[in-house]
Every structure is written in C-alpha cells, then in structure tokens.
Amino acid sequence: MNCGEEFQDYLPLMIEKLGEDGLMQELAKGFDLLADPRSQTITFQSLKSNGPMIGLPQMTDCELHRMISEGDSYGRGELDLHDFCVLMVRTSPVLMRMAKVMLHWPEDETNLTNIYYNM
C-alpha cells in the first residue's frame, strides 16, 4: 500500500525539552487521547475519530490502516501503549540515526545533543 504519508519529526525536540521520562509521559497522554476507551487500544476507528479532534491532519483510510499495521506487533489490528511508543520512535528518522550512532560509538564519547545538531 503506497499512501504517500509525510510526518513532521518532533520527537527529538521533545526529548531535548522534556527528557526521556517526560517524552514517555507525553506519549502516554497522546495514546490516551487516541485510544478507544473500551479496549484501551488505538484502533482504526478510534484513530479516525479522535485524531482530528487533537489536531492531527486529515488522513485517508489507507494512511490510517497503514499506521495501525506498521505498529501492530501482535497482528490484532490495534495498538497498545507499547506498540504506540515503539511506532513513534521508529517513525522518527533523527532518533533512528541517533540510535545507530550510539550502537557504534564508545559510551564515553556519545553526546546525543551534538549528534542531533550535527545531522
């Protein structure tokens, strides 16, 4: 499915401003706003109805289904909180590059702020 989606990558800025714990708290809040209150998961229908209410751009059904399927680690057609957080990090090009750099650099030389600003 080629849906032509394009996302703004705000996660690096959020980590810089909020720290890792703050980012996780904000992701959990976002999850709660998008989730179906009965199942406590993000479903196609909950994403379609709740997304625009929190300011997400209008997306096609194809884009919504693709978002769910990309993050759905259990094949249930829905995202739990863990799936949602992993999806948010995986869709951040800057965070993925930072992770690759961290895997290859000695721990004492890693400075994430410099990595972020020098990309």
Automatic annotation (TrEMBL):
Classification via InterPro entries: EF-hand-dom_pair, EF_hand_dom, KIC/PBP1/KRP1
Highest taxon, organism lineage: Eukaryota
Classification via Gene3D superfamilies: EF-hand
Organism the protein comes from: Ceratopteris richardii
Protein name according to UniProt: EF-hand domain-containing protein
Molecular function (Gene Ontology), one example: calcium ion binding
Domain EF-hand, first and last residues per copy: 39-90
PANTHER family: CALCIUM-BINDING PROTEIN KIC
